[in-house]
Amino acid sequence: MITLGHLLTVSALLFSIGLYAVLAKKNAILILVGIEFMINAAVLNLVAFGRYDAAFYGGQTFALFAIVLAAAAVAVALAIILNVYRHFKSIDPDDINDLKD
Amino acid sequence: MGHLDQIPTSILAALIALLAPLLAFLLSACAGKRIKSGIPATLAMVISLFAAIFVFSKVWEGETIHQQISWFSIGTNEFKVGIVLNNLSAVMLVLVCAIGLPVHVYSSIYMKGDLGIHRYWMYLSLFCFAMLGLVVADGLLLMYMCWELVGFASYLLIGFWFTKAAAAKANKKAFLINRIGDLGFLIGMAIIYAQFQTFDLLTLFGDQGTVKLAVANTWLTYAGIAFFLGAMAKSAQFPFHIWLPDAMEGPTAVSSLLHAATMVAAGVFMLVRISPLFDANVLLLIASIGAFTAFMAATIALTQQDLKKILAFSTISQLGFMMVAIGIGQFGVAIFHLITHAFFKCLLFLSAGAVIHEMHHLKEKHKLDIDAQDLRNMGGLRRYMPWTYRLTVVAALALAGLPLTAGYLSKDAILIYAFEWSEWHSGFWKVIPISLLITSALTAFYIARLVFKVFFGKLRLNRLFRKQFHVHEAPKGMLYPMVFLAIGSLFFLYSYNPLIFEDSWLLTGFGITESLQRVNIYHTVVPAAVNGLSIVVIFIAWRWYARRKYPIRKLSGVWYQFSEKQWYGNSVYELVMVRGVLWLSYVLYAVDRLVVDTAVNCAATIVRGLGDLSRWLDRYIVDALVNGLGSLSFKFGGILRGPTKGRIQYYMLSMFVVLLVVLLLGLRFF
Fold first, then answer.
1. B chain contacts of residue A31, beta-carbon cutoff 8 Å
2. Which of B383, B361, B362, B372 has its CA nearest to residue B456?
3. CB proximity under 8 Å: B 622-661 to A
4. For B272-292, what is the mean pLDDT?
5. Which residue on chain A is closest to B651 by alpha carbon?
6. Residue B669 vs residues A63, B659, B661, B665, B666: alpha-carbon distances, Å
7. Closest by alpha carbon to B190, among B200, B199, B181, B180?
8. What is the mean pLDDT of residues A58-65?
9. Residue B513 — very low, low, confident or very high, per pLDDT cuts 50/70/90?
């Protein structure tokens, strides 16, 4: 039987992988992928805890919203990355340091 | 004040008389150059005259009518404003209008073509309004305002030809001297208010007024002296007489108004209005100054060569007579003389104006370089200007005080009462009636000299320029007002008996009947003496000036010079006042420079030093501290961020680590 513990473990793994990708990858697209991992870990948590709200399915509903928001965020983020590339000719976050003093 | 139907008609009429010139003034003031004709102003005077006559017919010998409204209040003291109509104000109301109207008519010819004519009418209306207001005012405060307004309007009119330096100086002088008098009025008013807490004339000076009931008090004496100071300046009494001769710089028509009914009359009127205030000492002072002024001005008038100057000094002298009348307690007589004098002096000025007008024409026509007012250029005008001549003679006889004229009645009244009065005083005070007697003889002489020099003999210009000149008669528009005034200078307006002033209705109207009986010998002797003297003196003048048997060859004699230079009055003022003030201001200037400026500069230097010091402190200590801290933390921050500069993933990693540490610590300790 799949318990809440299993679900949370998978979610934690997903989150850690996402965090690692965000912190370590030298490619903005892969950082974006990492962010998606983390969002999905959160969505999985919502669904996992949603079992305790059998009357209204608040967790599941909220998960749907989060997925839609994540999709929108991806669209915006990809557009930003595209513009960054046009401007800097690079998507390595280390090269994008014009805001430093 | 309630509704319109509750106001007595006489008050309404007085208001109309008062407001008509004001409206004319406002109209002229608003319209500016567009109104050049004198019709609005003259019309206003006509309305005022009719209204004044109506008021007079209602009020004369009747009840005093008093109407007032609340004006403003300061604290709990309420100030009222209103109109009081009694014998005095009614008769003055008529007088001002009756003198004002002929002057307006005369001016319309005399001032024709003047560039500033629109201003002229405006000022004239203001002048008449101010004087009418003064006459009917029911309180000292309103009276004072009108008093000031009269002074201001006269200032404007004297300086009417302000481009002439002399006129500008003359009006300044008149204004300054009058300010001294105004100060007297103000002080007097303040004392009265402090003593009685009211400005109301009837409450103060009425028959049952507080002043009459008040115990004698030094403050009241001071108040009397202060008010007299005001009257001295306004009515040109020694030593404040010096502005009046200079005031001749204004147009002649203005001089006639100023000398007859408006400006100088204000002082005498005011003294009569507040007469219960004066105690014996103040009255004695008034009489002495009046008598001295009368005598002094008459002696000056003897030798002046300027036509208008002679008349100016004559006015000062006659005002002295009025002051004596007040000083001896005969207030009604003072007003009586004021009225008769207004008529004949106005007439004299208007005739002089006509003569000057024609002389001026002659000067313009032939481009002569002469003074149109100088007696030495005139002579023989009788043949050219017969009507002006006749009218002048009427006025001159009135001034000299010969029988059948109005001047005879009023002047003899003053002289007789002066003699009676001296009976009650110690022998020394005989000097006042005697000096008046001498003065009236001098009056006869100087006015005879004027008439003979102007109208008799031959025109001196003919001899000066070896040419035949022809002078015209004055225009009709100037003659008619003069005829009107000449009627006022004769006896029948005032008394049916030309020889005895006691029958005059004007005097009985002022309620002094008990002393009007011909109680003693003076009533017969004095008129005889005065007239005998006058006739002798006029005969001498005729021999000297008309027959050209002039006895004085040397014009540089001490006494002659003393008189011609006007008793050196102006020089004394120049020496004492002008130089004194200049010297004082030099001293003050030096003190200012040496003491005040130095102190101020020292203080400024000290403050600047302090400022420099605090700037240094601010910059090098306070600022340095703050900046030092700032740069220290800036450097510290620089060291800390060192290699991670601008690398976003390191920021995130460190954020994550910090978050983790916080979380762990939180788990561990809470």
1. 649
2. B383
3. 645-649, 652-653, 656
4. 87
5. A23
6. 34, 15, 12, 6, 5
7. B199
8. 91
9. very low
What is the C-alpha to C-alpha distance for residues B64 and B647, in angstroms, rounded to an integer?
A: 107
Distances (CA, A) of B162 to B156, B159, B663: 9, 5, 98
Mutate to test the interface with A, among B640, B649, B652, B658 (most CBs of A within 10 A): B649
Please give, rounded to a whole number of angstroms, the shortest distance from the CA of A94 to a CA of chain B.
Answer: 5
Closest to B133 measured CA to CA, from B181, B185, B81, B56:
B81
Cβ separation of B656 and A93 shorter than 8 Å? no
Residue B2 has pLDDT above 50, yes or no: no
Contact B216, B156 (CB under 8 A): no
pLDDT tens digits along A3-15: 888 899 999 999 9
What's the burial of A83, exposed, middle or buried (CB within 10 Å: 0-12/13-18/19+)?
exposed
Alpha-helical (H) ranges within B542-647 are: 558-564, 569-572, 579-591, 598-617, 623-641
Q: What is the pLDDT of residues B429-471, one digit of tens each?
A: 888 888 888 888 888 888 888 888 888 877 777 777 777 777 7
Is B552 a residue whose pLDDT tops 80?
no
Q: Given a cut of 90, is residue B174 above it in pLDDT?
A: no
Pairwise CB contact (< 8 Å): B652 & A24 = no
Mean per-residue pLDDT of chain B: 84
- The HSE-up count of residue B229 (CA atoms within 13 Å, CB side) is 18
Cα B496 to Cα B504: distance, rounded to the nearest angstrom: 7
Rounded to an integer, the average pLDDT of B237-258 is 84
> Which tokens hold the place of B380?
């023989």
Give me the interface pTM, i.e. the ipTM: 0.79
Scan for tokens 């703050």, then name that residue. Answer: B626
Cα–Cα distance, B254 to B150 (Å, whole number):
13
Is A100's CB within 8 Å of B652's CB?
no
Listing DSSP states for B387-421 in one string gives HHHHHHHHHHHHHHT-TTBHHHHHHHHHHHHHHHH
A22 touching B (Cβ < 8 Å): yes
